[in-house]
């Protein structure tokens, strides 16, 4: 693409960069007429669409190189990067039995399954295990991984059968020992549930969808001068109400980046391999069921409008950025719908999404023009004259790419974990360490939703978006009065970034200036999140790096109407008293001055001290020196140093407290770990609010540490808070979506109320009573 761009005359580049929506057809026509005669242009199109051309040719060597990169990332614990490399490798691997290295194909599926298992993407992991077994039914690692992920899904009957198959196939003594150990653990879980299968995410998705159908919330598209189109309801909406569910208009998922179509080996016969009748039946059931599903899915895949144009040897989707691939899938979907409606004479429909074309930087306008033209020719190779490459279709594609840039959503999955099971298997400290580092969100794809895109952004949203597979779920997180805006977060939020950072992020990514309440009114979080401490000992005032600008709002003194219990007028009075004065003194509230009392600090020195302290704390936390206790002592000294210059509510202090908590966990000293984890949570409650999902994730960490300490009462209290927070964001079935929370709760209750059969806990209880 860069070669073509270098040939474009400067005057044409300038015209495209300065173009508006009204002149878009003209600039598209000019660029199309310039590129069409160029031999290099046709060479690029041939490279992108021709299956034998070098740019997109499938290569077993390239697949092997990408596999090695994936293995390197996996060994370093970089599972998300490993997932990406394995997916790229599957893209490169020939997928017909004439060309494929069957073992390499099966290995790639199992390796990608292992990465997804580590990321908590259990359903996706199971699918890749099935694909590996389809290619190579005798592959031990595929059956072993399938058994492990079925255990994570709490489908213990299938897990035991999978592991028994792996054990029967394994020839090495060490391999058998590993499988036997896993089988022993799973059998214990299986016995504990009496063989019952506990519902997984797929079951929950159906139940939640049913809930949405039976209790619909009336939504209506409204328009406001400040934000244009948005969503509201004519009726009051209670907290945790399921507002909307929706399948995407089009989507591109990481799991689809390789492996949608693959061959199945039906030559394997379990009856000829000395398996017991039960195991032979299980193998036959799995392979036959998956073969049937694969045939159906292959047929389904070829007839899914958004995918069909990518089949048949065309591999340009592996080269283009996700936004461009998504634009192609939206067009394909539209083409199929119009074909069925008998309107194929019009190749594209106009989508009523915001595009902000006029606000896009000049370089991006040129890039979108280039991709629109190249994409239109790629689509024409499949649709022929049904999709003509004209200035009209190209200009529509430019706007569509802009619309996807502005309106598409990242499909996020919360990284699941079953570490709580380790509490029952003598691996408690390992479980705590893993939980502390595993509460994270994982981006697994990108999609665009027709109704979901109508919800506007707020930096303090009242709607939470989450995904089960590709299905979008929107749920209210607080009481919303009738006709009040229903708004979700496009990414930046109060507590995560300060006002200037949020504004910059939204302008760069979505091309609009946020005018939500949090960006228009004074709030505590923006004042303190990156602030320094006032030099006066008893002053809670915030010292900022840049001159504080009063929000241009007639009620700027008032707190936002969306303020929460942890934020009060009194706290803002203490933090920024001078901002609340009617007149005078504001000229002194600039860089390095306290917003409350006007005292000045040495800002350069404070910044250097803060940066060095936080960096050193992180290094010490990751360092082996922690094992002798010297590292902890140094880390605590650095924390005191950081707190001497940073505001008590600063996000950096919260981050440092979290680092120290993790460091104490690493050396097995959990009492102070609890203290520092609690300190981090208290700050986050100031920056976000007490019921924010970020606070919920931190409370899970705290509950895990408390459980290991045997503090059942403390863990129960923490888990109750977690349930309240997660129920607001994910509804009443939160324990089915996040089974780990349910496991923690069971453990906490058992510790807080020990049974008579547990003499150790009874002894602890009697000792506590006698000492009191």
TrEMBL record:
InterPro entries: SET_dom (IPR001214), SET_dom_sf (IPR046341), TPR-like_helical_dom_sf (IPR011990), TPR_rpt (IPR019734). It comes from the Eukaryota. Residues 217-491 form the SET domain. PROSITE patterns: SET. Gene3D superfamilies: SET domain (2.170.270.10), Tetratricopeptide repeat domain (1.25.40.10). PANTHER family: TETRATRICOPEPTIDE REPEAT (TPR)-LIKE SUPERFAMILY PROTEIN. This is SET and MYND domain-containing protein 4.
